[in-house]
Amino acid sequence: MGDDGCKIGVFLCDCGGTVDSIDLLEIADLCMGMEDVVNVEIFDFLCSPGMSDTMRGIIQDIGIDRVVIGACSPRLYLEHFQGVAEKAGMNRYMVEMANLREQCAWIHTFDREGATAKAKDQMSMAIARARRMTPSLHGMIATVDADLCDGCGVCKTVCNVNAITILDRNGEEALLSHIDPEICEGCGVCVSSCPSGAMDMELFSNDEVLAEIDAAIKANGFPRIVVFECHWCGYAAADTAGVKRIQMDSRFRVIRTLCSARVDPEWVLRTLSNGADGVMIVAGSPDRCHFDVGSLRTRKRMSLLGKLLDQLGFDESRFKVAWVNSDQPEEYAQAVDGFIGEILELGPNPYGRSAGEVESLRGAWARRAQKLTQ
Length: 374
What we know:
The protein has 374 residues and is α/β, with parallel strands linked by helices. It has helices at residues 24-32, 49-62, 74-87, 101-105, 112-132, 154-158, 189-193, 206-216, 234-243, 265-273, 294-311, 329-346, 355-373; strands at residues 8-13, 37-43, 66-71, 95-99, 142-144, 164-168, 175-179, 199-201, 225-230, 253-257, 278-283, 319-323. It has 13 helices and 12 strands. Residues 368-374 have low confidence and may be disordered.
Protein backbone atom coordinates (compact mmCIF):
# COMPACT_ATOMS: atom_id res chain seq x y z
CA MET A 1 0.00 0.00 0.00
CA GLY A 2 1.34 3.44 -0.94
CA ASP A 3 2.03 6.40 1.32
CA ASP A 4 -1.32 7.98 0.42
CA GLY A 5 -3.19 5.04 1.97
CA CYS A 6 -4.91 3.85 -1.24
CA LYS A 7 -6.30 0.32 -1.12
CA ILE A 8 -7.16 -0.66 -4.66
CA GLY A 9 -9.11 -3.83 -5.38
CA VAL A 10 -8.89 -5.24 -8.90
CA PHE A 11 -11.66 -7.43 -10.28
CA LEU A 12 -11.24 -9.17 -13.63
CA CYS A 13 -14.09 -10.87 -15.50
CA ASP A 14 -13.78 -13.52 -18.19
CA CYS A 15 -17.33 -12.80 -19.39
CA GLY A 16 -18.18 -16.46 -19.68
CA GLY A 17 -15.00 -17.28 -21.57
CA THR A 18 -15.65 -14.76 -24.34
CA VAL A 19 -12.39 -12.88 -23.71
CA ASP A 20 -10.11 -15.87 -24.32
CA SER A 21 -7.97 -13.88 -26.75
CA ILE A 22 -6.38 -12.15 -23.75
CA ASP A 23 -4.43 -13.82 -20.93
CA LEU A 24 -6.27 -12.85 -17.73
CA LEU A 25 -3.76 -14.66 -15.52
CA GLU A 26 -0.92 -12.61 -16.97
CA ILE A 27 -2.94 -9.45 -16.43
CA ALA A 28 -3.74 -10.47 -12.84
CA ASP A 29 -0.05 -11.06 -12.08
CA LEU A 30 0.80 -7.62 -13.43
CA CYS A 31 -1.91 -5.91 -11.35
CA MET A 32 -0.98 -7.74 -8.15
CA GLY A 33 2.56 -6.35 -8.39
CA MET A 34 1.42 -2.76 -8.80
CA GLU A 35 1.63 -0.14 -6.08
CA ASP A 36 -1.47 0.26 -3.89
CA VAL A 37 -3.18 -2.86 -5.27
CA VAL A 38 -4.16 -5.00 -2.27
CA ASN A 39 -6.28 -7.70 -3.92
CA VAL A 40 -6.87 -9.16 -7.38
CA GLU A 41 -9.70 -11.54 -8.27
CA ILE A 42 -10.83 -13.22 -11.48
CA PHE A 43 -14.53 -14.00 -11.77
CA ASP A 44 -16.88 -15.52 -14.30
CA PHE A 45 -19.80 -13.13 -15.00
CA LEU A 46 -18.86 -10.52 -12.41
CA CYS A 47 -22.09 -8.66 -13.20
CA SER A 48 -24.27 -11.57 -11.98
CA PRO A 49 -26.04 -11.09 -8.61
CA GLY A 50 -24.02 -13.80 -6.86
CA MET A 51 -20.64 -12.57 -8.08
CA SER A 52 -21.54 -8.97 -7.32
CA ASP A 53 -22.41 -9.97 -3.76
CA THR A 54 -19.05 -11.73 -3.46
CA MET A 55 -17.31 -8.62 -4.77
CA ARG A 56 -19.12 -6.49 -2.20
CA GLY A 57 -18.00 -8.82 0.61
CA ILE A 58 -14.37 -8.63 -0.51
CA ILE A 59 -14.50 -4.83 -0.56
CA GLN A 60 -15.86 -4.79 2.98
CA ASP A 61 -13.53 -7.45 4.38
CA ILE A 62 -10.33 -5.87 3.06
CA GLY A 63 -11.39 -2.25 3.43
CA ILE A 64 -10.89 -1.45 -0.25
CA ASP A 65 -11.45 2.24 -1.05
CA ARG A 66 -10.96 2.16 -4.83
CA VAL A 67 -12.11 -0.45 -7.33
CA VAL A 68 -10.71 -1.13 -10.79
CA ILE A 69 -12.66 -3.56 -12.95
CA GLY A 70 -11.33 -5.20 -16.09
CA ALA A 71 -14.37 -6.44 -17.97
CA CYS A 72 -16.82 -5.13 -20.56
CA SER A 73 -17.52 -1.55 -21.55
CA PRO A 74 -18.20 1.04 -18.82
CA ARG A 75 -21.06 2.16 -21.02
CA LEU A 76 -22.80 -1.09 -20.06
CA TYR A 77 -22.03 -1.83 -16.42
CA LEU A 78 -20.21 1.05 -14.73
CA GLU A 79 -23.36 2.21 -12.94
CA HIS A 80 -24.02 -1.36 -11.77
CA PHE A 81 -20.56 -1.69 -10.24
CA GLN A 82 -20.82 1.78 -8.72
CA GLY A 83 -23.95 0.53 -6.98
CA VAL A 84 -22.11 -2.55 -5.70
CA ALA A 85 -19.32 -0.36 -4.31
CA GLU A 86 -21.83 1.96 -2.66
CA LYS A 87 -23.55 -0.98 -0.94
CA ALA A 88 -20.12 -2.02 0.34
CA GLY A 89 -19.70 1.37 2.02
CA MET A 90 -17.54 3.05 -0.63
CA ASN A 91 -18.13 6.32 -2.42
CA ARG A 92 -19.83 5.12 -5.61
CA TYR A 93 -17.61 7.26 -7.83
CA MET A 94 -14.36 5.58 -6.72
CA VAL A 95 -14.81 2.89 -9.39
CA GLU A 96 -12.98 2.72 -12.71
CA MET A 97 -13.44 0.23 -15.54
CA ALA A 98 -10.96 -0.90 -18.19
CA ASN A 99 -12.66 -2.18 -21.33
CA LEU A 100 -11.01 -5.56 -21.88
CA ARG A 101 -13.84 -7.14 -23.84
CA GLU A 102 -15.23 -4.91 -26.62
CA GLN A 103 -12.06 -2.83 -27.07
CA CYS A 104 -9.37 -5.48 -26.48
CA ALA A 105 -10.42 -9.11 -26.80
CA TRP A 106 -13.13 -8.67 -29.41
CA ILE A 107 -11.32 -6.35 -31.85
CA HIS A 108 -7.99 -8.18 -31.60
CA THR A 109 -9.28 -11.76 -31.66
CA PHE A 110 -6.40 -13.21 -33.69
CA ASP A 111 -3.62 -11.26 -31.95
CA ARG A 112 -3.45 -12.75 -28.46
CA GLU A 113 -0.06 -11.20 -27.73
CA GLY A 114 -1.12 -7.74 -28.88
CA ALA A 115 -4.52 -7.96 -27.21
CA THR A 116 -2.96 -9.01 -23.90
CA ALA A 117 -0.33 -6.26 -24.10
CA LYS A 118 -3.04 -3.68 -24.73
CA ALA A 119 -5.20 -5.08 -21.90
CA LYS A 120 -2.26 -4.88 -19.50
CA ASP A 121 -1.63 -1.25 -20.44
CA GLN A 122 -5.33 -0.35 -20.15
CA MET A 123 -5.38 -1.89 -16.65
CA SER A 124 -2.21 -0.01 -15.71
CA MET A 125 -3.82 3.21 -16.93
CA ALA A 126 -7.02 2.49 -14.98
CA ILE A 127 -5.08 1.78 -11.78
CA ALA A 128 -3.02 4.95 -12.28
CA ARG A 129 -6.23 6.93 -12.60
CA ALA A 130 -7.76 5.23 -9.55
CA ARG A 131 -4.85 6.40 -7.40
CA ARG A 132 -5.75 9.99 -8.24
CA MET A 133 -9.47 9.65 -7.59
CA THR A 134 -11.12 11.57 -4.78
CA PRO A 135 -14.62 10.95 -3.40
CA SER A 136 -17.23 12.90 -5.33
CA LEU A 137 -20.53 14.34 -4.14
CA HIS A 138 -22.13 15.03 -7.50
CA GLY A 139 -20.40 12.80 -10.03
CA MET A 140 -19.51 14.24 -13.41
CA ILE A 141 -19.60 18.01 -12.87
CA ALA A 142 -17.17 20.89 -13.24
CA THR A 143 -15.66 22.59 -10.20
CA VAL A 144 -13.96 25.93 -9.53
CA ASP A 145 -10.86 26.64 -7.45
CA ALA A 146 -11.72 29.98 -5.86
CA ASP A 147 -8.06 30.76 -5.18
CA LEU A 148 -7.21 30.61 -8.90
CA CYS A 149 -10.41 31.95 -10.46
CA ASP A 150 -10.37 35.61 -11.53
CA GLY A 151 -13.93 35.65 -12.86
CA CYS A 152 -12.88 36.32 -16.46
CA GLY A 153 -16.08 34.71 -17.70
CA VAL A 154 -14.61 32.50 -20.44
CA CYS A 155 -16.24 29.46 -18.83
CA LYS A 156 -19.64 31.13 -18.92
CA THR A 157 -19.33 31.94 -22.63
CA VAL A 158 -18.56 28.33 -23.59
CA CYS A 159 -21.20 26.67 -21.36
CA ASN A 160 -24.05 25.49 -23.55
CA VAL A 161 -26.51 24.81 -20.70
CA ASN A 162 -26.11 28.04 -18.70
CA ALA A 163 -24.79 26.22 -15.63
CA ILE A 164 -22.24 28.95 -14.83
CA THR A 165 -22.79 32.36 -13.27
CA ILE A 166 -20.22 35.03 -12.42
CA LEU A 167 -20.51 36.26 -8.84
CA ASP A 168 -18.83 39.07 -6.97
CA ARG A 169 -16.87 38.13 -3.88
CA ASN A 170 -19.01 39.78 -1.24
CA GLY A 171 -18.61 43.25 -2.67
CA GLU A 172 -14.93 42.89 -3.57
CA GLU A 173 -13.72 43.96 -7.01
CA ALA A 174 -12.68 40.41 -7.92
CA LEU A 175 -15.24 38.06 -9.47
CA LEU A 176 -15.76 34.33 -9.15
CA SER A 177 -17.28 31.64 -11.37
CA HIS A 178 -19.98 29.47 -9.84
CA ILE A 179 -21.17 26.08 -11.13
CA ASP A 180 -24.74 24.96 -10.53
CA PRO A 181 -24.39 21.19 -9.93
CA GLU A 182 -28.06 20.66 -10.78
CA ILE A 183 -27.58 22.02 -14.28
CA CYS A 184 -23.99 21.07 -15.19
CA GLU A 185 -23.85 18.11 -17.60
CA GLY A 186 -20.16 17.44 -17.06
CA CYS A 187 -18.99 17.89 -20.66
CA GLY A 188 -15.84 19.62 -19.41
CA VAL A 189 -15.68 22.27 -22.14
CA CYS A 190 -15.28 25.00 -19.53
CA VAL A 191 -12.40 23.15 -17.88
CA SER A 192 -10.31 22.87 -21.03
CA SER A 193 -11.15 26.49 -21.92
CA CYS A 194 -10.21 28.09 -18.58
CA PRO A 195 -7.13 30.33 -19.07
CA SER A 196 -6.24 30.40 -15.37
CA GLY A 197 -6.46 26.67 -14.65
CA ALA A 198 -9.14 27.28 -12.03
CA MET A 199 -11.61 24.78 -13.48
CA ASP A 200 -11.55 21.03 -13.00
CA MET A 201 -13.90 18.05 -12.81
CA GLU A 202 -15.06 15.98 -9.85
CA LEU A 203 -14.66 12.90 -12.07
CA PHE A 204 -12.05 12.64 -14.83
CA SER A 205 -10.10 15.40 -13.14
CA ASN A 206 -6.92 16.73 -14.73
CA ASP A 207 -4.83 14.71 -12.27
CA GLU A 208 -6.69 11.52 -13.17
CA VAL A 209 -6.33 11.95 -16.92
CA LEU A 210 -2.68 13.00 -16.69
CA ALA A 211 -2.00 9.86 -14.67
CA GLU A 212 -3.61 7.81 -17.47
CA ILE A 213 -1.52 9.61 -20.08
CA ASP A 214 1.73 9.01 -18.20
CA ALA A 215 0.89 5.32 -17.75
CA ALA A 216 -0.01 4.97 -21.44
CA ILE A 217 3.30 6.33 -22.71
CA LYS A 218 5.36 4.13 -20.40
CA ALA A 219 4.72 1.24 -22.78
CA ASN A 220 7.84 0.02 -24.53
CA GLY A 221 8.40 -0.26 -28.25
CA PHE A 222 6.93 1.44 -31.28
CA PRO A 223 4.42 2.76 -32.06
CA ARG A 224 3.07 4.32 -28.88
CA ILE A 225 -0.28 5.83 -29.84
CA VAL A 226 -2.85 7.41 -27.49
CA VAL A 227 -6.45 7.82 -28.66
CA PHE A 228 -8.85 10.08 -26.77
CA GLU A 229 -12.42 8.94 -27.41
CA CYS A 230 -15.67 10.79 -26.74
CA HIS A 231 -17.89 8.60 -24.55
CA TRP A 232 -20.95 9.29 -26.69
CA CYS A 233 -19.39 9.05 -30.14
CA GLY A 234 -15.95 7.52 -30.71
CA TYR A 235 -16.04 5.27 -27.66
CA ALA A 236 -19.53 4.04 -28.54
CA ALA A 237 -18.39 3.32 -32.10
CA ALA A 238 -15.41 1.37 -30.71
CA ASP A 239 -17.75 -0.71 -28.55
CA THR A 240 -19.90 -1.51 -31.58
CA ALA A 241 -16.78 -2.44 -33.53
CA GLY A 242 -16.11 -4.95 -30.78
CA VAL A 243 -19.64 -6.35 -30.87
CA LYS A 244 -19.31 -6.78 -34.65
CA ARG A 245 -15.81 -8.31 -34.19
CA ILE A 246 -14.25 -5.82 -36.59
CA GLN A 247 -10.55 -6.64 -36.40
CA MET A 248 -8.01 -3.86 -35.88
CA ASP A 249 -4.35 -3.21 -35.19
CA SER A 250 -3.80 -3.48 -31.42
CA ARG A 251 -1.06 -0.84 -31.14
CA PHE A 252 -3.05 2.00 -29.60
CA ARG A 253 -4.26 2.85 -26.10
CA VAL A 254 -7.61 4.48 -25.30
CA ILE A 255 -8.52 7.27 -22.87
CA ARG A 256 -12.26 7.86 -22.51
CA THR A 257 -13.59 11.39 -22.00
CA LEU A 258 -17.19 12.48 -21.69
CA CYS A 259 -16.80 14.93 -24.59
CA SER A 260 -14.07 15.51 -27.15
CA ALA A 261 -14.02 19.17 -26.12
CA ARG A 262 -12.81 18.05 -22.68
CA VAL A 263 -9.45 17.16 -24.27
CA ASP A 264 -7.08 19.91 -23.20
CA PRO A 265 -4.44 20.93 -25.76
CA GLU A 266 -1.93 20.61 -22.93
CA TRP A 267 -2.77 16.89 -22.73
CA VAL A 268 -1.78 16.48 -26.37
CA LEU A 269 1.44 18.44 -25.86
CA ARG A 270 2.33 16.43 -22.77
CA THR A 271 1.65 13.15 -24.55
CA LEU A 272 3.83 14.00 -27.55
CA SER A 273 6.55 15.69 -25.49
CA ASN A 274 6.96 12.57 -23.35
CA GLY A 275 7.47 10.27 -26.29
CA ALA A 276 4.12 9.16 -27.72
CA ASP A 277 4.46 8.55 -31.44
CA GLY A 278 0.94 9.75 -32.22
CA VAL A 279 -2.16 11.24 -30.62
CA MET A 280 -5.67 10.99 -32.03
CA ILE A 281 -9.00 12.40 -30.90
CA VAL A 282 -12.12 10.54 -32.04
CA ALA A 283 -15.07 12.92 -31.86
CA GLY A 284 -18.60 12.91 -33.22
CA SER A 285 -19.37 15.01 -36.27
CA PRO A 286 -20.49 18.53 -35.32
CA ASP A 287 -24.07 17.89 -36.42
CA ARG A 288 -24.32 14.79 -34.19
CA CYS A 289 -22.58 16.00 -31.01
CA HIS A 290 -24.28 14.81 -27.81
CA PHE A 291 -23.60 18.19 -26.19
CA ASP A 292 -24.58 20.14 -29.35
CA VAL A 293 -21.47 22.35 -29.58
CA GLY A 294 -18.70 20.16 -28.14
CA SER A 295 -17.45 18.96 -31.53
CA LEU A 296 -17.52 22.48 -32.93
CA ARG A 297 -15.28 23.65 -30.12
CA THR A 298 -13.02 20.64 -30.65
CA ARG A 299 -12.66 21.45 -34.36
CA LYS A 300 -11.79 25.07 -33.74
CA ARG A 301 -9.42 24.44 -30.83
CA MET A 302 -7.58 21.50 -32.36
CA SER A 303 -7.07 23.17 -35.74
CA LEU A 304 -5.20 25.90 -33.86
CA LEU A 305 -3.28 23.26 -31.92
CA GLY A 306 -2.08 21.68 -35.15
CA LYS A 307 -0.45 24.97 -36.17
CA LEU A 308 1.10 25.35 -32.72
CA LEU A 309 2.60 21.86 -32.87
CA ASP A 310 4.39 22.78 -36.07
CA GLN A 311 5.76 25.96 -34.49
CA LEU A 312 7.03 23.97 -31.49
CA GLY A 313 8.95 21.58 -33.71
CA PHE A 314 6.59 18.60 -33.71
CA ASP A 315 5.58 16.89 -36.90
CA GLU A 316 1.97 17.99 -37.27
CA SER A 317 1.14 14.59 -38.79
CA ARG A 318 1.57 12.98 -35.37
CA PHE A 319 -1.73 14.52 -34.28
CA LYS A 320 -5.13 13.93 -35.85
CA VAL A 321 -8.83 14.43 -35.16
CA ALA A 322 -11.24 11.87 -36.64
CA TRP A 323 -14.98 12.55 -36.90
CA VAL A 324 -16.80 9.30 -36.12
CA ASN A 325 -20.36 8.90 -34.87
CA SER A 326 -21.64 6.22 -32.53
CA ASP A 327 -23.20 4.23 -35.38
CA GLN A 328 -20.03 4.14 -37.50
CA PRO A 329 -17.90 1.24 -36.20
CA GLU A 330 -16.37 0.53 -39.62
CA GLU A 331 -15.35 4.17 -39.99
CA TYR A 332 -13.86 4.04 -36.48
CA ALA A 333 -11.71 1.04 -37.38
CA GLN A 334 -10.60 2.63 -40.64
CA ALA A 335 -9.70 5.91 -38.93
CA VAL A 336 -7.61 4.32 -36.19
CA ASP A 337 -5.91 1.76 -38.43
CA GLY A 338 -5.21 4.48 -40.98
CA PHE A 339 -3.60 6.69 -38.35
CA ILE A 340 -1.46 3.81 -37.08
CA GLY A 341 -0.29 3.26 -40.66
CA GLU A 342 0.65 6.93 -40.97
CA ILE A 343 2.64 6.81 -37.74
CA LEU A 344 4.47 3.68 -38.91
CA GLU A 345 5.52 5.63 -42.01
CA LEU A 346 6.72 8.57 -39.90
CA GLY A 347 8.75 6.41 -37.56
CA PRO A 348 9.43 6.89 -33.82
CA ASN A 349 8.90 10.27 -32.17
CA PRO A 350 12.33 11.63 -31.19
CA TYR A 351 10.88 13.48 -28.20
CA GLY A 352 11.23 11.51 -24.97
CA ARG A 353 13.71 9.09 -26.56
CA SER A 354 17.47 9.08 -27.05
CA ALA A 355 18.87 9.17 -30.58
CA GLY A 356 20.14 5.63 -30.12
CA GLU A 357 16.70 4.39 -29.07
CA VAL A 358 15.08 6.03 -32.10
CA GLU A 359 17.51 4.35 -34.49
CA SER A 360 17.08 1.01 -32.74
CA LEU A 361 13.30 1.25 -33.04
CA ARG A 362 13.54 2.27 -36.69
CA GLY A 363 15.71 -0.76 -37.38
CA ALA A 364 13.45 -3.13 -35.48
CA TRP A 365 10.38 -1.89 -37.33
CA ALA A 366 12.12 -2.09 -40.72
CA ARG A 367 13.07 -5.69 -40.07
CA ARG A 368 9.55 -6.56 -38.96
CA ALA A 369 8.00 -4.84 -41.98
CA GLN A 370 10.36 -6.70 -44.31
CA LYS A 371 9.47 -9.99 -42.69
CA LEU A 372 5.75 -9.30 -43.01
CA THR A 373 6.07 -8.65 -46.75
CA GLN A 374 8.06 -11.81 -47.51
